[in-house]
Amino acid sequence: MRLRLLSAVYPLMAIATSASLIAKPEPVKTLAIGADAPDFSLPGVDGKNYTLKDYSEAKALVLVFTCNHCPDARAARGKVIALHEDYKDKGVAVVAISGNDDKALRLDELGYSVYGDSLEDMKNVAKEEGYKFAYLYDGLTQKATKAYGAVSTPHVFVFDAERKLRYQGRIDDARRSRANKGTPYVREALDAMLAGQPVKTETTRPFGCSTKWSWKRDAVAEDNANWKALPVTLEDLDTETAKSLAANKTEKLRVINFWSTTCGPCIAEFPELIETYRRFQNRPVEVITISSDPVKDRAKVEKFLTSQQAALSRRTIGSVKKEGRKSNNYIYTGDNLDHLAEAIDAKWNGALPHTVIITPGGKVIWRHNGRFDAVELRRAIVGYLDGLTGE
């Protein structure tokens, strides 16, 4: 009996010990000026593997540690592209590296981007942005990111022909602006190096989102557990309340999804709907679901919503209460679904699922009948929010 108990306990202890090791933050030291460039061997979005030796003929090497999701990194994309274009004929190689562990990102950290930080998502970004330089993935081991000491996205390292570090820090002083502002530190460093001159400013602070180290996976697990523990609610919806939802007299972008428990595409897309809500919960965005099931099937609707963890985010509760509402999940109680369609989107043909995005003030800016593409839904949301907050 004692042996059986020990054999049961020790594996658990090993698992706990392993988890504690993963969760422990590791000290990261940024490479010092004058240091040699650490070697790396990383997969690129083009399916090839790249090492430091692949750039041995370059007069200068610019390594930009960046990612897909961070607003600072997104704002810098055009600048990295311009660096490549402006300096490629001068013998300068530009390489982008994503050192984020994409599984160490909570969903609510993805509210400024259409994509996450996986290698597949990187391929999409590189294609859409037209990257003509290597975009490498280091999220699996993070060895290169640790070796260079890249602490944020973006974080730039500029090396001379001997691969000695001559500059590290930020691109310029623009922060999240897509425009060039302040001192162009990277360009100044490159111009000085190519002219055989000393670099005037060798180090700056690299402002941006922190690197998502693998030990942050525990925070993701905790966030998912907290979300799963949230209560799921369902309220009745009459035609007048539907009209008020469509009028959207709030400051939030409102995504409304019409669905039914008997609709296969509705069921298939629902997890992506909830994921989208969780992604944007820190921003002025909410997702409202409206079931067209008969009221007699209310228990069935509630059971499905619970299985999908269609909860109300704690960050949204206040604004919902302010409107005098209790939930973002509804079942329509009217006798005529035409009245529901006319109240929210008269262009809805009645087929399920149907999704609309409504701005503050009640304007429909996006609609889709049938199963939506999650990327296109997020693109519409981010596009609207960027129009309000971008430069």
Automatic annotation (TrEMBL):
**Which residues does UniProt assign to the signal peptide?**
1-23
User: Care to name a GO molecular-function term for this sequence?
Assistant: antioxidant activity
A family per Pfam: AhpC-TSA
Locate the Thioredoxin domain: which residues?
31-195, 211-386
Which Gene3D superfamilies does the UniProt record give? Glutaredoxin (3.40.30.10)
Q: Which InterPro entries match?
A: AhpC/TSA, PRX-like1, Thioredoxin-like_sf, Thioredoxin_domain
Would you tell me the protein name for this molecule? Thioredoxin domain-containing protein
Q: What's in the keyword line of the UniProt record?
A: Signal
UniProt cross-references to SUPFAM superfamilies, sorted A to Z? Thioredoxin-like
